Amino acid sequence: MLRCASLFSQLIGLFNRQQFYRLVIKHKTERHSKGYNSWDHFTAINRDALKFLSFFRCV
Length: 59
What we know:
The protein is mainly α and 59 residues long. It has one domain. The chain is 66% helix and 0% strand. It is built from three helices and no strands. The chain has helices spanning 7-13, 17-27, 38-58. The protein is globular. The relative contact order is 0.13. The mean pLDDT is 86.
């Protein structure tokens, strides 16, 4: 049981994963992928964006 969700978890929870995959299939974004699927790439980009923003908050 998750007591306190992280900010990252809350952000990712806003996106409907099934709708995301429907868009992936519609736009054929995974046809040339090598290793990472679109959802993993999406979460990595968002994680890095949060790290970047938290860096400026600390400065």
